[in-house]
Amino acid sequence: MILKKRNHSFLMFSSLSAMLMNINIPRISDLGQIYHLLTVPRITVVLVLLFVIGYNFFRRSGRLNFPVVENREEADYRLAIREGVAKFPNSPFTISDDPLFVVAPKSTISDIKSFTQDSASFSKHLQYLFHSNITNIGEHEDGALISVIRNDISRQLVTTLGILQDEAIFGFDSCFGPSRDWTPVTLYPAIAKIVTLISGRLFLGRPLSRNEELINTSIKFTIQATNVRDALAKRPKWFRKFLSPFYEEIKSIFNIKKEFAEIIRPMIDAHLAKEGDGKLYSDEGDEQGKFIACLIDRMPPEKRGNIQYLTNQLLSLSFASIHTTSITATQAIYDLASYREYIPLLVDEIKEVMAEDGYDTADDGSVRLRKTSLPKFLKLDSFLKESQRVSPLSLVALRRLVTSDLILSTGHLIPKGTHLCYPSWEIYNESTTLYLDGYTKPLNKFDGLRYYNLRRLPGNANRYYFVSAAPDSLQFGYGNQLCPGRFLANNQIKVILIELLLNWDIRFPDDVKMEGGAWRRPKNNFVKFDCRPDMKASVELRRRKNT
């Protein structure tokens, strides 16, 4: 149903009721207690709250003159997006949510190239989404963290390939053990731990990165950050900050931060103590402290040594790395077990590249790829990109908080304060550039070699890679605000899948004959704009006899 106006009244008061039910309010048992509460400061607070309620209740926005697509399926926005794109192909439309999103027409996607942080900001959208004024999640306005990712981590990825492989192998061993027989495992938690080990090794170094308490705290934060986002979105925004100390989710997130700070404090203190003489803190000659050194060097001088600030920075990085990478890797492994015909193709490609480039053998007999090898796995790259097309992290992309009025190429005015996005779900499922008869399967079918075959066409040699950004490839953004960690995510996921493909057999518990089948794949869970894998689904793993 398409509505011309939105009714805020019911939503506001239902949210207010839910909010009050989740607050521990002291009981008042007699008139004496009531009199005690009626002090001037308390009355003032009550009057201010009543004013805020009245102002927001009676005011009319009138700023967004776009059609509204109402959500028929409250928890799944796929139909709403599809309906909006079909009915309003050349006009923005809005989807009822908090924040209220304006979905821009697909035809204006090139406009995003001119959007800067000063006009339409991705980071400010994330800060709103995760309530950074309350949680401090995504609070990196000084740019130190982004600068480290873009300049210090991404530029050294080739030299860190061995570290990623070491930790992937260690992660598989610690999560799955010998597993000479078929062993059931809940996939997502295991992959999240492996990703945490890899990220921790790169960001913190050994031995701290293998500290079980650190690993568990990092994963807890990743889960709880999403819980906080969803929980606060259900509360009236006018009261979120004022009443946040009462919310259990907020208490939990700050307890996790405190735990994390206590774990990393010795390393931070040791590094700061030696910073003056130009030496990096290290433990028994290992790499611990190098990333911290880069981060501290790029921080404003007044924030160096602020353990709370460093904790917020590291946990924000941890969330961004663990959350999205674990989900993407889990989805790809579900697809491998479902579409088993791709497994021998990918294994053969890995072995062919290793034969061409050579490889190194560790003391335990495990193999290490050469630095030149990873970009050559073109079929694996295609399989990953197709997995992400079919099961994207989000149904919309290029999310921005408009920080100054914008005019789209269609002539529509997008006012300051609007949350803008593009319908990537529809683009991935309808784009004519992603299907070519005789080269690819239709877009409603999984085709692990779709992008491999598209790259074989004239003029496409440098297009359609996993990390590519284009109007039909928006997973890592487009324009001038691309994800700075996309190359790290690319390497992490590929290293995990290569370890799996070379050394392990995988199947679903009901697939004894290892036949695969899309119908066996755990169903995705669509929550508003999010597309999440089944995080409780199991697979069975078996270490190959020759490894």
TrEMBL record:
Q: Does the keyword Magnesium apply?
A: no
Gene3D superfamilies given in the database record: Cytochrome P450 (1.10.630.10)
Question: Where do the TM regions start and end?
Answer: 34-58
GO molecular function annotations of the record: heme binding; iron ion binding; monooxygenase activity; oxidoreductase activity, acting on paired donors, with incorporation or reduction of molecular oxygen
Which segment of the chain is annotated as a signal peptide?
Answer: none
Keyword Ion transport set for record? no
The protein's matches in Pfam families, at most eight in alphabetical order, are given as: p450
Alphabetical list of InterPro entries matching this protein: Cyt_P450, Cyt_P450_E_grp-IV, Cyt_P450_sf
Q: Which cofactor does it need?
A: heme
Residues bound to heme are: 483
What keywords were assigned to this record?
Heme, Iron, Membrane, Metal-binding, Monooxygenase, Oxidoreductase, Transmembrane, Transmembrane helix
In the record, the note on similarity to other proteins reads:
Belongs to the cytochrome P450 family.
Name of the protein: Cytochrome P450 monooygenase 3
- Organism expressing this protein natively: Golovinomyces cichoracearum
